[in-house]
Design a protein that fits this description.
about 220 residues, alpha/beta, Rossmann fold, 6 helices, about 35% helix, binds guanosine-5'-triphosphate, binds magnesium ion
């Protein structure tokens, strides 16, 4: 029997190659969106990267696409303030979202982002999977569970991706994985495999490319 919420395995060579080829082609920034009305026409399937502020969403998009400055990453939480669309080949949109759980911006602004984020996650027809990023140093928090609940209700499959694994020991990772698995257990929309990544060192990037390449 498969362990619930196991670690996503290294892809088979042909799957890895399909993933590599997808991102070796054209990847372009399309637009930054500040209101639902501004979303590009829903002509392709899309996957999004959601997670707490500073968890590493933009960095992971840069790592997956192999383009360093594509999504703006920064040490300042709250860097990404729009829904940023990237077109991958002719096939798919990658979507970089503003972070949630960030308290250090004016309340009105935080509320505007959060509203947009929630409308997007619950209401985008072509959204095939949400990657919910969790910092390997902290594990899933209450705000992550709030987003997971929203995705359950919207029936959007979400897959948990641990970020910054280069920053933790094996023992620390086991501890935060246990916290995260416990959180995921209550969510019917959770995909049963977790991806371990480091945008910095490259861990899990091949796996994530292969996973995204299989989504249609
Ligand atoms: P917001 O847009 O503010 O929500 O943040 P974000 O989730 O897009 O995070 P971002 O990619 O901007 O990264 C935040 C910080 O974490 C930056 O200083 C990154 O360099 C750092 N970081 C991201 N991924 C990794 C990683 O895998 N390892 C390490 N060590 N640092 C990382
Ligand atoms: Mg960002």
């Amino acid at each position: 029997m498969q362990l619930k919420f196991s670690i996503a395995p290294t892809p088979e060579p042909d799957e890895a190659e399909t993933g590599r080829l997808l991102f070796a082609g054209q990847v372009d920034f399309v637009k930054g969106v500040v209101a639902m009305a501004g979303l590009p026409p829903a002509t392709r399937v899309e996957v999004c990267f959601a997670g707490r502020s500073n968890v590493g969403k933009s960095s992971l998009i840069n790592a997956v696409t192999g383009r360093k400055g594509l999504a703006r990453a920064s040490n300042t939480p709250g860097r990404t303030q729009e829904i940023n669309y990237f077109a991958v080949a002719e096939r798919l949109f990658l979507v970089d979202l503003p972070g949630y759980g960030y308290a250090n911006a004016p309340l009105a602004i935080v509320e505007r982002w959060q509203k947009l984020l929630k409308s997007y996650l619950a209401g985008r027809q072509t959204l095939r999977r949400a990657f919910v990023l969790i910092d390997a140093r902290h594990g899933a928090k209450a705000v992550d569970e709030e987003i997971m609940t929203l995705l359950d209700r919207a029936a959007v499959t979400f897959q948990c991706v641990m970020t910054k694994v280069d920053k933790v020991s094996a023992a620390e990772l086991e501890a935060t994985l246990a916290i995260t698995r416990a959180a995921l257990a209550g969510h019917p929309a959770a995909y049963p495999e977790i991806v371990l990544t480091s945008a910095e060192k490259g861990d899990g990037i091949e796996t994530l490319r292969a996973i995204i390449a299989q989504i249609d």
